[in-house]
Amino acid sequence: MGTRVYVARLAGLPVFDPNGDRVGRVRDGVVRLRTTTRPPQVVGLVAEMALRRRIFLPIGRITSMDAENVVLSSGSLNLRRFEKRPNELLVIEDLLDRRVEVVPEHGEGAATPGVVVDIGMDLNRNNEWLVTRVAVREHTGRLTRRGHVFQAEYERVRGLVGPTDTQGTSNLLALLEQMRPADMANALQDLPDARRNEVAAALSDRTLADVLEELPEHDQVEILVRLDRERAADVLERMDPDDAADLLAELPKAEQTVLLDLMEPEEADPVRQLMNYRPGTAGSVMTSEPVILTPDTTVAEALARIREPELSPVVAAQVFVARAPSATPSGKYLGMVHFQRLLREAPSSILGGIVDNDIEPLRPDAPLAEIIKRMATYDLVAMPVIDSTRRLVGAVTVDDVLDHSLPRDWRERDNLGADETDEVTL
């Protein structure tokens, strides 16, 4: 293990036990402030384990940390959920993007303003990891040119430990955007409310839509209502219609109407339709945008369609075959074709010749218990939903079923993971 490590570069790296089994990922570094003039001490890392549980890894338990991974020594590991103490700061959450000033090396001349992009720690003779370096991007004051990044000794940096309102978002965003939406949502939950809302507002519409779908309902509402209404409508347009409908259902009726009116009609219409179904039924949990193709579509064309990157795995797992039009509500529903069947057929074959119509579709008023039973019986990841005229109006996917079968607060971090007193031996 080297004698200098930059903490932000560790974010996202896998954590392994002595046997080479992965136990989690690094999410942050913990810095302990001192009452003396000595530099702060890095006392450990925060790692995210299974089910989004964040725990503390004491720095003394780490045998190796480099550009590829972090390795722990043998012994027991406390799975108690990490909670920051009053004299502690988190590098990424509290220090990254902090606006600081760097005084000249010999104390003469004006200080250089900038923002923190990383924190360097060094191992001293007492086996303590101390904050010794700060990587800073110079603030140029120009919109067209980014300042260069330089390193400064900790003692030369003013404002590193100070009010949190001197913190921007650019470097934290760069780290978050490397994560999956579910992990990004988890990271946002750990931020103070004001910082979380600021970071969320700085995300692109597409990214924020993906993240909102992974957050608890009260956090979704808190973030959405702090956006201006035009931006909120843009974000809702980029959410899956069923998720947008669920989120809008948490808002007052008047606010629902305003946001739906601001959305593009082709985006708002399916959301309105979903909101008309009774809660707990197939209509209320289905997606109105499954992959729908006509019977004369070839296997090659179907495979190209489900390869499109914006499709989720469960939506791309099968195509539904119906007469034109190919948007919900479609023409007469004919059946479905699983992607495995597509892989086994000749590319020139047409879907009408290989369609599976043995399973009776769901009706919009089918209760959740019936949906679960039928999906389990036939080992399906999605089921079609048709109206009284056998037009396809949507599809219920397994992730829809899970979202609505689990307790409403299942996304809350406090309800995930092992008991607070649990330990594991590595």
Automatic annotation (TrEMBL):
<dbReference type="Pfam" id="PF26205">
    <property type="entry name" value="SH3_actinomycetes"/>
</dbReference>
<dbReference type="InterPro" id="IPR058838">
    <property type="entry name" value="SH3_actinomycetes"/>
</dbReference>
<dbReference type="InterPro" id="IPR011033">
    <property type="entry name" value="PRC_barrel-like_sf"/>
</dbReference>
<dbReference type="Pfam" id="PF03448">
    <property type="entry name" value="MgtE_N"/>
</dbReference>
<dbReference type="GO" id="GO:0016020">
    <property type="term" value="C:membrane"/>
</dbReference>
<dbReference type="InterPro" id="IPR006668">
    <property type="entry name" value="Mg_transptr_MgtE_intracell_dom"/>
</dbReference>
<feature type="domain" description="CBS">
    <location>
        <begin position="286"/>
        <end position="354"/>
    </location>
</feature>
<keyword id="KW-0129">CBS domain</keyword>
<dbReference type="InterPro" id="IPR006669">
    <property type="entry name" value="MgtE_transporter"/>
</dbReference>
<dbReference type="GO" id="GO:0015095">
    <property type="term" value="F:magnesium ion transmembrane transporter activity"/>
</dbReference>
<dbReference type="Pfam" id="PF00571">
    <property type="entry name" value="CBS"/>
</dbReference>
<dbReference type="InterPro" id="IPR000644">
    <property type="entry name" value="CBS_dom"/>
</dbReference>
<dbReference type="InterPro" id="IPR038076">
    <property type="entry name" value="MgtE_N_sf"/>
</dbReference>
<protein>
    <submittedName>
        <fullName>Mg/Co/Ni transporter MgtE (Contains CBS domain)</fullName>
    </submittedName>
</protein>
<dbReference type="InterPro" id="IPR046342">
    <property type="entry name" value="CBS_dom_sf"/>
</dbReference>
<feature type="domain" description="CBS">
    <location>
        <begin position="355"/>
        <end position="415"/>
    </location>
</feature>
